[in-house]
Amino acid sequence: MATCAVYTTPSLHSCSITIPAKTSSGFHRRQVIVFTSKRITERGGRRTSEVSCSAEEAKTVVIGLAADSGCGKSTFMRRLTSVFGGAAEPPKGGNPDSNTLISDTTTVICLDDYHSLDRTGRKEKGVTALDPRANNFDLMFEQVKALKHGVAVDKPIYNHVTGLLDPPELIRPPKILVIEGLHPMFDPRVRQLLDFSIYLDISNEVKFAWKIQRDMAERGHSLESIKASIEARKPDFDAYIDPQKQHADAVIEVLPTQLIPGDNEGKVLRVRLIMKEGLQHFSPVYLFDEGSTISWIPCGRKLTCSYPGINFAYGPDTYYSNEVSVLEMDGQFDRLDELIYVESHLSNLSTKFYGEVTQQLLKHSDFPGSNNGTGLFQTIVGLKIRDLYEQIVAERAAAVAEAAKV
Amino acid sequence: MATAPAGVSTSARGVVSSKAELPKPQLSKRMLRLPWASRRRASTRRLVLVASSPTPPNISEKVVESIKKAEETCAEDAASGECAAAWDEVEELSAAASHARDKLKAKDPLEEYCKDNPETDECRTYED
């Protein structure tokens, strides 16, 4: 007996998957078989009636990662795949400009591959890539659903160099599927498929500083062109991308530091990890006492830090009418013992051994953000996702065992 | 199951306590790789990427062209969709250029080996 979960939105009450006569998207499907139902009450008193149904069980855990271009998605991806072990490489023998990354356990899909308009098409219509009109959400939903249920798909490739849509590549269902891009949480159907979602929210000043770092060495770019580029994309970004953060389970917000007055270099950062409360497989990280408000400066007698030091804060809050816990770090790490000291005081990190967070940060010390909150929180979220994955797998195994007994 | 963190030599002390506490390893400073503080290893790799490797010429050309086109398009009508699409293209190409630069970064065979095997003799680092 196979089970899957369906959510209470009216449009999703039926759990049948139909096989279309011809699919241009070219994926291989299997037939729908069973339908059963049971009710589960969510903890915390919130009742969502989960109707378990349909054919294949959900086999893959799907994670969504949203961020604007140039905002650290690739770094996050590399940290995440490293937590699961192994390095993620582009598929061997395929299109060299493929955006997909594959490792033993994880496959990372770039949602730019679901652009419905290539660069010329967008120029003609006068739309940016941020605009939903330039993306094929139906195809995105179908293929992510297929992969989630263990069916391989032929996914198109968007070539960032030429700006054209290349012939599709075969993607086999992995244990963990990460979809990263501009719109993972935009379409409600795709949002329902996600087991966990993350949004990287970079403030305007920091974004500007990072883009300068990235582009200034580039011939042709000047401060004005970088600024103009950010300004021109802002309306579409605010209208379509930014609202996704209210749907995210975890938001990593990057702001300029408060420790150095008037700092605009963006080297020292204030990073906030905003974690949704009440999720089934995710328990937020906390400092000292869960649910209380803490302000902590670790530098003092036991730990000597160099300028500007490190400040931590933790507390409950509301974020777009969701209950959240916020863990905040301002400043940067200079030495290993600062890292270990901080790690030993954080709780609910889902590490498998003492010092795992520090080890992961050291392993990738050349990645940007390894000495401040961005690297720290990305690593912690990576460990949380690993924990979520293991919980879901254990649950499914238990469900299968239950079914076998019956 | 406690394993030693990569690049850090630990002597796991058997801490016996009534609470199920994870043993806290003693960190030997000699074996620490602290890239951001270390002066012994070649620091060029740790510098900001901007100066390290050039963009492949074809992408570089595209970026320059797209910036010129965007400036022209926006000179005509700054609020139009075409202007936004043009700058979006600049952004996309700049991102592609930056990724190409990352790929081109000289792959040091020793670094690659040491990433996977930090405990071997060739990969030990010392800090005074």
Automatic annotation (TrEMBL), chain A:
<keyword id="KW-0934">Plastid</keyword>
<dbReference type="GO" id="GO:0019253">
    <property type="term" value="P:reductive pentose-phosphate cycle"/>
</dbReference>
<dbReference type="GO" id="GO:0005524">
    <property type="term" value="F:ATP binding"/>
</dbReference>
<keyword id="KW-0067">ATP-binding</keyword>
<dbReference type="GO" id="GO:0042803">
    <property type="term" value="F:protein homodimerization activity"/>
</dbReference>
<keyword id="KW-0602">Photosynthesis</keyword>
<keyword id="KW-0150">Chloroplast</keyword>
<dbReference type="Pfam" id="PF00485">
    <property type="entry name" value="PRK"/>
</dbReference>
<keyword id="KW-1015">Disulfide bond</keyword>
<comment type="pathway">
    <text>Carbohydrate biosynthesis; Calvin cycle.</text>
</comment>
<feature type="domain" description="Phosphoribulokinase/uridine kinase">
    <location>
        <begin position="62"/>
        <end position="260"/>
    </location>
</feature>
<comment type="similarity">
    <text>Belongs to the phosphoribulokinase family.</text>
</comment>
<keyword id="KW-0808">Transferase</keyword>
<dbReference type="InterPro" id="IPR006082">
    <property type="entry name" value="PRK"/>
</dbReference>
<keyword id="KW-0113">Calvin cycle</keyword>
<dbReference type="InterPro" id="IPR027417">
    <property type="entry name" value="P-loop_NTPase"/>
</dbReference>
<protein>
    <recommendedName>
        <fullName>Phosphoribulokinase</fullName>
        <ecNumber>2.7.1.19</ecNumber>
    </recommendedName>
</protein>
<keyword id="KW-0547">Nucleotide-binding</keyword>
<dbReference type="GO" id="GO:0008974">
    <property type="term" value="F:phosphoribulokinase activity"/>
</dbReference>
<dbReference type="GO" id="GO:0009507">
    <property type="term" value="C:chloroplast"/>
</dbReference>
<keyword id="KW-0418">Kinase</keyword>
<dbReference type="InterPro" id="IPR006083">
    <property type="entry name" value="PRK/URK"/>
</dbReference>
Automatic annotation (TrEMBL), chain B:
<feature type="disulfide bond">
    <location>
        <begin position="114"/>
        <end position="123"/>
    </location>
</feature>
<protein>
    <recommendedName>
        <fullName>CP12 domain-containing protein</fullName>
    </recommendedName>
</protein>
<dbReference type="Pfam" id="PF02672">
    <property type="entry name" value="CP12"/>
</dbReference>
<dbReference type="GO" id="GO:0009507">
    <property type="term" value="C:chloroplast"/>
</dbReference>
<dbReference type="InterPro" id="IPR003823">
    <property type="entry name" value="CP12_dom"/>
</dbReference>
<dbReference type="GO" id="GO:0080153">
    <property type="term" value="P:negative regulation of reductive pentose-phosphate cycle"/>
</dbReference>
<dbReference type="InterPro" id="IPR039314">
    <property type="entry name" value="CP12-like"/>
</dbReference>
<keyword id="KW-1015">Disulfide bond</keyword>
<feature type="disulfide bond">
    <location>
        <begin position="74"/>
        <end position="83"/>
    </location>
</feature>
<feature type="domain" description="CP12">
    <location>
        <begin position="59"/>
        <end position="128"/>
    </location>
</feature>
<feature type="region of interest" description="Disordered">
    <location>
        <begin position="1"/>
        <end position="24"/>
    </location>
</feature>
